[in-house]
Write a structure and sequence with these properties.
Helices cover 22% and strands 0% of the residues. By secondary structure, the chain is mainly α. The radius of gyration is 13 Å and the shape is extended.
Length: 49
């Protein structure tokens, strides 16, 4: 698994995400949404086997 950059110099994709009631309290889901919205700095590096 490796991260891919989205946008002009990366993969041209959009991600649509919806939550069910109560799912916004799950830490990793909330973190993903905050990261996607630009609310936190990303510190992502490839996972090497």
């Amino acid at each position: 698994v490796v991260p891919l950059r989205l946008g002009p110099h990366g993969v041209a994709k959009q991600i649509f995400l919806g939550f069910r009631e109560g799912e916004d309290e799950v830490d990793y889901l909330r973190g993903f949404v905050e990261l996607a919205r630009g609310g936190m700095k990303a510190n992502v590096s490839p996972i090497r086997a």
